[in-house]
From TrEMBL:
Ranges for domain Semialdehyde dehydrogenase NAD-binding: 35-150
Pfam (any one): Semialdhyde_dh
InterPro entries: Asp_semialdehyde_DH (IPR012080), Asp_semialdehyde_DH_beta (IPR005986), NAD(P)-bd_dom_sf (IPR036291), Semialdehyde_DH_NAD-bd (IPR000534), Semialdhyde_DH_dimer_dom (IPR012280)
Protein name, UniProt field: aspartate-semialdehyde dehydrogenase
E.C. numbers: 1.2.1.11
Length: 370
């Protein structure tokens, strides 16, 4: 059995010492904390922000819940307090230090710069600013230095949260790149309903019920049946190139995060009927030799990574292992037998799209601002 510091047992997975964290019962409301706003509070990621803020004991002095006009006036419970959801407007940010945005790209493009001009630091979960020159694109475990010049109290700014599939991939690949320098990366993703939001998750539930009851599936969010099916990712397609937007995000974002415009990347992104947590099959070519043992050692030492790599029992990461978990799970680490050298590896990765792929990464960015 091939295991490292993270062991597989009958009861599950034990995280490495580097990634182990004690959860607390409440976020830390304090007079000295930043003033926080959550933009898009009613969405799946907006709700997950609240969970993560609590789990990580994030300090705040005030909390503002923002959403569209149709949600304004509704109540949102957080830390034993009932907040009234406010309508998101251009005037929402005059008393905000950190704004966690997850309301879609068009809202971010319109209001992100306004919030930054008002003095707020925007941590944006959309694709609106990821490739914008001068806007840091950050995974805290990977490239925190990209945002080291931005702090609460030093003026407004925008920081972009990478795409979920990029975050999950680079959490696993970065420690290996630091050992042997990745030359080429080939990624196939298996992406859950959570990546398309709460409505897509409900569509998967309803279609599953209908199909099991002998009724026809009724596609609404996606153009074809989702239950008991899989299909090319539903993002926009570049017809001439043959790649969709999700695939190109992996290419372009990785180059920016690693500050390596020459890294060669190809991707195939597929939507699968899984409720929550993405999976990715990754093939890597390195500049230097790297053994399976070296790779597992590097992965075990990297914060935010857990290993499930039990060959004897054919036990490797699954989306259910990663669901609601902070860590990204890595396994099936093996030499690429299509090569005659020791410069190729394959691995399988699973990560919670809503958590580390979105809300957790954003809150970790916010922690670096303090």
């Amino acid at each position: 059995m091939q295991l490292t510091r993270t062991q597989v047992s009958r009861s599950g997975v034990r995280p490495t010492r580097a990634s182990r964290r004690v959860l607390v019962a409440k976020a830390a409301k304090t007079a000295n904390g930043p003033r926080v706003a959550i933009v898009g509070i009613t969405g799946a990621v907006g709700q997950e922000f609240l969970t993560v803020l609590t789990e990580r004991n994030f300090p705040y002095s005030s909390m503002k819940m923002l959403a569209s006009a149709r949600s304004a006036g509704k109540k949102q419970e957080f830390e034993g307090v009932s907040y009234t959801i406010e309508e998101l407007t251009e005037n929402s940010f005059n008393d905000v230090d950190i704004a966690l945005f997850s309301a879609g790209g068009s809202i971010s493009k319109k209001l992100g710069p306004i919030a930054a001009k008002a003095g707020a630091i925007v941590v944006d979960n959309s694709s609106a600013f990821r490739m914008t020159e001068g806007v840091p694109l950050v995974i805290p475990e990977v490239n925190p230095e990209a945002m080291s010049h931005i702090k609460v109290g030093k003026g407004g700014a925008i920081i972009a949260n990478p795409n979920c599939s990029t975050i999950i991939a680079l959490m696993a690949v970065t420690p290996l790149d630091r050992v042997a320098n990745v030359k080429r990366m080939c990624v196939s993703t298996y992406q859950a309903a959570s990546g398309a939001g709460a409505a897509a998750m409900e569509e998967l539930r309803q279609q599953t019920r209908d199909v099991l009851d002998g009724k026809p599936a009724q596609p609404k969010i996606f153009p074809q049946q989702y239950a008991f099916n899989l299909f090319s990712h539903n993002s926009g397609m570049d017809v001439a190139l043959g790649y969709n937007e999700e695939e190109m995000k992996l290419v372009k974002e990785t180059r920016k995060i690693w500050n390596n415009p020459g890294i060669r990347i190809t991707a195939t992104c597929v939507r699968v009927p899984v409720m929550r947590a993405h999976a990715e099959s990754i093939n890597l070519e390195f500049e230097k030799d790297i053994s399976e043992a070296q790779a597992l050692e590097a992965l075990a030492a990297f914060p935010g990574v857990s290993i499930i790599n039990d060959r004897q029992n054919n036990r490797f990461p699954t989306p259910l292992d990663a669901t609601t978990k902070d860590n990204v799970f890595v396994g099936r680490v093996r030499r690429d037998i299509s090569r005659d050298d020791n410069k190729g590896l394959d691995l399988f990765v699973c990560g919670d799209q809503i958590k580390k792929g979105a809300a957790l990464n954003a809150v970790q960015i916010a922690e670096l601002l303090l």
